[in-house]
Amino acid sequence: MTTTFEKLSSNKVKLGFVVEPEKFDEGLKKAYNKMKGRISIPGFRKGKAPMKVIENHYGEGVFYEEALDAIFPEIYQAALKEHDVQVVDRPELDVEQIGRGKELKFTVEVFVRPDVELGDYKKLGIVKTVDEVTDDDVNAEIERARDRSARWVEITDRPAKLDDQVNIDYAGFDGDEQFDGGTAQNHELVLGSGSFIPGFEEQLVGHSVGEDVEVNVTFPEQYHAENLAGKPVVFKVKINGIREKEMPALDDDFVTEVSETANNVEEYKAEIRANLEKAADQRGETAFENEVIETVCENAKVDIPDAMIEDQIDSMLRDMELRMMYQGMKLDDYFKYTGQTREQVRDMYRDSAKERVLSQLVLEAVKKAEDIKATDEETEAEMARYAEQNKMELDKFKENLSDGDKEYFAEAAAMRKTIDFLKANAE
């Protein structure tokens, strides 16, 4: 077999194939053995008619398409390897000559990983912003910690107010008919949390334990249950109990309960400030990194094939489906609940997918231009980082890695090194 290579554009190539007659005859035999059981010829049992008889009956080309399909994968992959082509889409095939005893001649046009024309990627002027941690930030974080440690205390001497937790029974009515999904017993609800339909929680304010309350609300126009969307309804509610949140005092006892290192309030405030400053530094570093990558991508020129963007959208949808599964929901059920379609979500992801593909291609181009490779130690560190994130012992984790897995971590380490290179060379 001989092949030719022609670059049609920055993201598309053309391969020419001339295949020896013996190879195509081999494909014809495979096609015959695969198809003969499905072909009926008068005077022969199904599957027993000779190849020549079938060709005489249906025409010489009856096996051509199947024969080409049988040999194409092997010769196509050989050509891709020979010319170092990384395809990103299905090939478009044009047959020029085909027949028994003849050389098989055809061409293939296919989209490939595009060339990247890098612009400036060193000495980029990037503004790095790190948020200042104020006393108000520290106090707000402490209040959140106190809130997490708060307890609910039963109240019997006053009516409910906003921020109270009420225990209620309720039943929803559309006119005189009770509707499905609108009934519950001993439901705990924090008034003002926005957990229920707008207006529901506010109408319980001012009512006491044991009272029966009629709550009049209107469902939103975009409500997931179409039979209730936009409808005014009445909920008959009974208040079983009221509880008030009691916050712990900010003292040394509280500090020793919530902190593993601080022993008093002042030490606790210092610990909170240090944690907030560390988080602010991380946010600033992440924003700086994103700005560097975005600027390098803006300076580059690349024509991304649509197939690469669609593949990235497929990957994002698979990730979404996994997240839904972890929450006990099927993706199709999620679409029904939200009123979205798969195509709408694909369109929603398209810009983000394009950005991901662009950054990947540009970073790979920088890595190649600077000949950046990961050392064994850096690859090992990448594996250790992954094992730690997934709470796995490194040695056991490494035992199960294939050569392909190890190449993946080496590539990930090299990509991390490339990003660090760009950041180090930014001004």
Description:
With 427 residues, the protein is an alpha+beta fold. It has helices at residues 21-35, 51-58, 64-82, 135-148, 252-258, 265-299, 306-326, 331-338, 342-369, 376-389, 394-399, 403-424, and strands at residues 2-9, 12-19, 92-97, 104-111, 116-117, 151-155, 165-174, 177-190, 212-218, 232-246, 301-302. Strand 3 (92-97) and strand 4 form a beta hairpin. Helix 4 (135-148) crosses helix 6 (265-299) and helix 9 packs across helix 12 (403-424). The radius of gyration is 34 Å and the shape is extended. The model has no long low-confidence stretch (mean pLDDT 93).
Could you provide a short overview of the structure?
With 427 residues, the chain is an alpha+beta fold. 46% of the residues lie in helices and 20% in strands.
Give a quick set of tags describing it:
46% helix; 4-stranded antiparallel sheet; 427 residues; single chain; alpha+beta
